[in-house]
Amino acid sequence: MAAVRRRLARQRARRRDADQKARRFRRRIRTRLARRPRLAAYLARRFDLRLTSGWRSVRRNRRIGGVPGSWHTRGTPRKPGAIDMAGTPADERAALRWARRNVPDLAEALIHDSGAGRHLHLAGRGVMHWRWPRRGKLRRWLAGLRRQRRRRRDAGRQIARLKRLLRPR
Fold it and tell me: Is 101 helix (H, G, I), strand (E, B) or coil?
């Protein structure tokens, strides 16, 4: 009887250790995911890119040779002013097109080759505060974006037509 009790106690201890390891692992994964900016996480999933740089302190920015006053030094680690992402050239171009269409207030959106290699660079207030709309609002949000683009295009056409009419003959 005593041997059975000892064996059950060892099994309970192993199970307790396994539960603690699982809890630690989940906590570690949760904190890693929480540190990644929302926009970077979305682009990484959708376009198979990896985050190479986000928020930097001024000291770190200076140490790696970054431009003084860089967008990378603005914001917080969770909401950086700029993100750099690397992947295949086709994925980078697709992500750049998507970002130009769907991220408002972008100050910089480009693919360039700096000393760190070729990467997609997105910067601006839109990167800091980007949030994918909830499911129910998504359709209305996309329709609003299309309306804005259509209005801009129509206004440009009207201006061009007026310029043609006012041109002296």
Answer: helix
Among 25, 24, 21, residue whose Cα is nearest residue 13: 21
> What confidence category does residue 95 fall into, taking pLDDT thresholds of 50, 70 and 90?
very high
CA dist 21 and 149 (Å) reads 52
Range with the poorest average pLDDT among 61-65, 79-83, 89-93, 115-119: 115-119
Interatomic CA distance for residues 117 and 87, integer angstroms: 11
Contact present, 43 and 52 (Cβ < 8 Å): no
Q: Say whether 97 sits in a helix, a strand or coil.
A: helix
Contact (CB, 8 A) for 109 and 128: no
pLDDT, tens digit (0-9, with 9 covering 90-100), for 27-65? 665 544 445 678 888 888 889 898 888 888 899 889 988
Spatial distance between the Cα atoms of 67 and 164, rounded to a whole number of angstroms: 44
Closest to 38 (Cα-Cα) out of 143, 131, 112, 150:
131
Question: Would you tell me how many other CB atoms lie within 10 Å of the CB of residue 50?
Answer: 12
- Quote the radius of gyration of the chain (alpha carbons, Å): 25
| DSSP code for 106 | -
In angstroms, rounded to a whole number, what is the distance separating the alpha carbons of residues 156 and 35? 42
